[in-house]
User: What shape does this take?
Amino acid sequence: MKNTRTKHTAAFKAKVALEAVREQQSVAEIAKRYGLHANQVYKWKRLFIEQAATVFDRDADSVESVSSEREDQLLKKIGELTVERDFLSRGLGRLR
Assistant: This one.
């Protein structure tokens, strides 16, 4: 019988890690309930704690990147409209 690796979703990992962080049950009990090895639960718990601060860093970065992206779009549109205005003003100047 071939053993295949189970790929757990990020939501599942976060759920298990959060339960481990709460420490309402032992890691062994959590591992048994979800059919995992205790070492895996410890690893997810450690990653969860280490990377908790990056969640808030990403929010600030995403807000800055969205505003920067919007600013780039607006500057591009201003450039297009300026070129269009100059082109049309030259065309109207010839007709006079």
Summary: The mean pLDDT is 86. The chain has two domains: 7-50, 53-96. The chain is about 80% helix and 0% strand.
